[in-house]
Amino acid sequence: MRVKVAFLETDKNYLQRIVTALSSKYADKLQLYSYTDKEAAIAALRSERIAVLVCTTGFELTADELPANCGLAYLTDSMDVASYQGHPAICKFQKAEQIYKGILSVYAETSASSAAVRYQSGSMAMVILVTSPSGGGGASSVAAGLARRLALRGSRVLYLNYEKLGMSDIYFNGPGQQGMSDVIFAIKSHRGNLRMKVESCARQDESGVYYFAAPAIALDIMELSADEELELMDTVAKSDSYDYVIVDRAFGMGEDDIKVMNKAHRVFWVVEGTAGGVTKASRAYTAFDIMAKRTELPFLRQLVCFYNKYEAGRSAQVEQGPDMSGSIPRFAISDARALTERIAQVEDLDYIL
Asked: pTM of the predicted model, to two decimals?
């Protein structure tokens, strides 16, 4: 299904450029119409069943002129303008990808339900949950490094940070105006099309990894319940936009933690190669092993464990507990982004797949 989008713009040269740019990149996602005359555009909204109208601020439209379920956004000259006349604003002068995401965001707010958009292939991304029973084991750096490695191999990868104080932005950087706070609001409000909203909020790093900018306030992500975490995981995994979803999540042994781990295709424990880190991992595994005798724990069958910050001959070894599938050396790198770039070169990470 393609979203029908109409542009209403007095500048014919700009109109031609933007329609050409969007058509070349998103022909399979957008069906585009262009107008310079307001009356012609208004008539087409109903006759062509336009889903989103994007018009320049030179035109003023009233609610009566818009059909039900037709979204409206205004084209502006500045990135600093978030809204105009009570409707979302999209800056003219940015990459086609950002304009496309702005359109998706508007459509997501007005679309009747997520069922209105069908998955194109029915395929599902592989969800890999990365966590550390060691505490301070460097799971976030490893998760970001794994995402980079998969992207370097040509895969479409989303890095999804569920840590309460997590900061995706220290690992990745990409253009965009929306982020994780907007995703959380969409989940909480139950308004519009969640899949479209999620796609419009994702940013892309130059490495190819997609991610959501961290909430400005950590309290936002603390509002997510385990069921809402699973809803978002399921939405992105089934969106046909990604091959892998790397979930970065704090370790826990509660009912909610187990529920989330059980839904992942792989659970990747990052174990710090210290005596304390190894002991904690062993204790956690033993506890889960006991629990598995009373209740089904599917994630244990998908569990992969790695040493991190490993130094041969000096790091502690796991003697009782999970089998270790590989190791990541200790790198003397303080910059978070540079560290993930180095971790992405570790070939042992391929064992996770």
From this structure: 0.76
